């Protein structure tokens, strides 16, 4: 029996606004509407929605999902097998990070001792869920150069980069309530600029400004960054834009 948008939203646990957005961008347009204009979702529509949400859970951008599921060669069974493999891998990585969190709690209580290597078990920087979007924004060459540079790093260098990034985020989080154009904020964001330049060879100030905007445009970035402190992503966006505008020749 066809379902109205409110019923689908309640069944799935997503917002009506999200379903409307999927319809507006042509990602999921229900097969029928009532005479009053209400959307009616069929069982096939619900299966498509399930596929979309699997892809979203795996951090695929909506544009890429639409490209995949509208491809004439798209095979739902193959996609489900791929989803299963990727979700199992995601669970494996999350289990590793949970174990590291639990060990860190034990260490802080004085119950165990962790080596520096133990502290970073479970972190994996070989997979970048934002790579496709980076390619769309800045081209394949820039991303390929960045990947090549990262792949040449030793594990020790990768661990150092992770610790350095964490330190900068924590420092910026303590400043997020300050004006983004303050001296302290601009000094800290300069450190972030040089970190990105060293780690991904990004010395283009306009790209730096664009990355900052991406922290707000893409909720995945926002959610990850705001784990260090609510509002940090917006603060970094503003501080990065000011830094870039001041230094562009």
UniProtKB/TrEMBL annotation:
Alphabetized Gene3D superfamilies for the sequence: 1.10.1660.10, Antibiotic binding domain of TipA-like multidrug resistance regulators (1.10.490.50)
InterPro entries the record matches: DNA-bd_dom_put_sf (IPR009061), MerR-type_HTH_dom (IPR000551), MerR_fam (IPR047057), TipA-like_antibiotic-bd (IPR036244), TipAS_dom (IPR012925)
Keyword Ligase: no
Pfam (any one): TipAS
Keywords on record: Activator, DNA-binding, Transcription, Transcription regulation
Taxonomic source organism: Halobacillus naozhouensis
CDD domains in the record: HTH_TipAL-Mta
Record's protein name: MerR family transcriptional regulator
PROSITE patterns according to UniProt: HTH_MERR_2
Matches recorded under SMART domains: HTH_MERR
Domain HTH merR-type stretches: 1-71
């Amino acid at each position: 029996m066809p379902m109205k948008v409110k019923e689908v939203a309640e069944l799935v646990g997503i917002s009506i606004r999200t379903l409307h957005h999927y319809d507006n961008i042509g990602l999921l347009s229900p097969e029928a509407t009532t005479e009053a204009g209400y959307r009616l979702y069929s069982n096939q529509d619900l299966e498509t929605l399930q596929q979309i949400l699997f892809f979203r859970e795996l951090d695929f951008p909506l544009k890429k999902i639409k490209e995949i599921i509208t491809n004439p060669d798209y095979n739902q069974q193959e996609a489900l097998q791929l989803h299963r493999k990727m979700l199992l891998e995601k669970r494996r990585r999350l289990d590793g990070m949970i174990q590291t969190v639990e060990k860190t709690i034990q260490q802080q209580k004085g119950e165990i001792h962790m080596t520096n290597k133990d502290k970073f078990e479970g972190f994996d920087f070989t997979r970048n869920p934002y790579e496709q979007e980076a390619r769309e924004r800045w081209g394949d060459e820039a991303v390929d150069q960045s990947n090549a540079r990262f792949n040449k790093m030793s594990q020790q260098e990768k661990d150092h980069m992770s610790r350095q990034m964490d330190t900068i985020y924590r420092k910026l989080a303590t400043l997020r309530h300050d004006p983004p154009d303050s001296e302290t904020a601009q000094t800290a964001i300069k450190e972030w600029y040089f970190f990105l330049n060293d780690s991904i060879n990004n010395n283009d100030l306009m790209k730096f400004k664009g990355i900052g905007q991406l922290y707000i445009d893409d909720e995945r970035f926002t959610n990850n960054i705001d784990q260090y402190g609510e509002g940090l992503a917006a603060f970094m966006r503003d501080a990065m834009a000011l830094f870039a505008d001041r230094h562009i020749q």
